[in-house]
């Protein structure tokens, strides 16, 4: 039995790895201008190729952004679901992404109005503050209600409040700022630069490593807080770390790509189904790779399905993610009815 499980884990991770590589290549090659794999290899070797600027300045940074931020989305969703013991907790549903979006829009309008450039680090800090504000409200509500549905409703309401404040801020922006804010708020990996990729890669890598180091206490926490305390786990410290790490990941996503819906909910659930395991040491890398695959696939569709018009990434992720969320809720309701 144990041997079969190990084989299953190996197959799942091999498939995820292959999907990541395949989708990375497809995202670089497919577009209004076709780029072949041979062109990519030649360019990497330093040879002069046609459309090298499109390859290195547009498609490569965008592909890496989808890869990194998609993984961050999957991981943030897993942390929130573990924290709340709730299968449909996620940055978008709980209003955390909306809070981050609100503070980033305030900073963008204010600083751009003062003719001050906004750095990547400043965007992440602003998004983190907004994510923490929303998370604080969600935590307060979660202590008052036990129902999963009520927690989701509270998250949606927090999201609406943050969106209303964002719209209010936008009314005071000039036309150029409104265009930038509108494009960013719809969710997109376009316009990513190598400087952005560097900042997001370092932020997500350090945060993901910290999450992976929490695998053992997370495994105990999943079995209940009392059980974790008996094993010597500092539950309060662990819960604080989960809040901070999920907020940093959510902030990084919103700062660079805007709010992206449903990935954080769907990916951890799918990873759990494929692995038939909830072990954090397996779920953490699986959620990261799964999030990368999901976002790379959706970004490819967003660019190509309605070309030359580009869809927002949230539109595509919602089409695939929303049915999964509905299925989770229906399944959960059936399980409760059976009990």
TrEMBL record:
* Bilayer topology annotation: Multi-pass membrane protein
InterPro entries reported in the protein's UniProt record: ABC_BtuC-like, ABC_transptr_permease_BtuC
Q: Does the keyword Calcium apply?
A: no
Cite the entry's keywords alphabetically.
Cell membrane, Membrane, Transmembrane, Transmembrane helix, Transport
Q: Which residue ranges does UniProt annotate as crossing the membrane? A: 12-42, 62-80, 92-116, 122-141, 148-173, 193-214, 243-269, 281-302, 311-330
Q: Name one GO cellular component term.
A: plasma membrane
Mind telling me which Pfam families this protein's record contains? FecCD
**Main subcellular localization, coarse class?**
membrane
Molecular function (GO) terms for this protein are: transmembrane transporter activity
Protein localization: Cell membrane
Q: What are the GO BP annotations of this UniProt entry?
A: siderophore-iron import into cell
**PANTHER family linked to this entry:** FERRIC ENTEROBACTIN TRANSPORT SYSTEM PERMEASE PROTEIN, TRANSPORT SYSTEM PERMEASE PROTEIN
> What family classification does the UniProt entry report for this protein?
Belongs to the binding-protein-dependent transport system permease family. FecCD subfamily.
Can you name this protein? Iron ABC transporter permease
Q: Which organism is it from?
A: Anthropogastromicrobium aceti
């Amino acid at each position: 039995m144990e041997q079969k499980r190990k084989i299953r884990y190996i197959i799942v991770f091999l498939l995820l790895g292959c999907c990541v590589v395949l989708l990375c290549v497809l995202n670089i090659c497919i577009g209004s201008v076709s780029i072949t794999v041979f062109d990519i290899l030649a360019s990497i070797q330093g040879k002069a190729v046609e459309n090298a600027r499109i390859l290195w300045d547009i498609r490569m940074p965008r592909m890496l952004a989808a890869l990194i931020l998609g993984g961050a989305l999957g991981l943030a969703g897993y942390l929130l679901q573990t924290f709340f013991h709730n299968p449909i907790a996620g940055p978008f549903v709980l209003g955390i992404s909306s809070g981050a979006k609100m503070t980033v829009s305030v900073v963008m309008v204010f600083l751009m109005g003062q003719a001050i450039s906004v750095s990547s680090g400043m965007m992440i800090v602003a998004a983190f503050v907004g994510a923490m504000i929303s998370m604080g409200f969600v935590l307060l509500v979660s202590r008052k209600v036990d129902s999963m549905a009520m927690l989701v409703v509270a998250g949606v309401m927090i999201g609406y409040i943050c969106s209303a404040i964002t719209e209010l801020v936008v009314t005071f922006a000039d036309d150029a700022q409104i265009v930038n804010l509108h494009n960013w708020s719809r969710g997109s990996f376009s316009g990513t630069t190598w400087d952005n990729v560097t900042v997001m890669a370092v932020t997500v890598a350090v945060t993901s490593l910290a999450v992976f180091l929490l695998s053992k206490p997370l495994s105990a926490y999943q079995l209940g807080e009392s059980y974790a305390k008996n094993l010597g786990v500092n539950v309060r410290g662990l819960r604080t770390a989960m809040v901070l790490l999920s907020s940093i990941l959510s902030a990084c996503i919103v700062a660079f790509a805007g709010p992206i819906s449903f990935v954080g909910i769907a990916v951890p659930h799918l990873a759990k189904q494929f692995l038939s395991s909830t072990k954090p040491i397996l779920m953490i890398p699986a959620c990261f790779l799964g999030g990368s695959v999901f976002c790379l696939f959706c970004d490819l569709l967003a660019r190509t399905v309605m070309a030359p018009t580009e869809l927002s990434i949230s539109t595509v992720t919602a089409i695939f993610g929303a049915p999964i969320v509905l299925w989770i809720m229906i399944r959960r309701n059936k399980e409760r009815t059976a009990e």
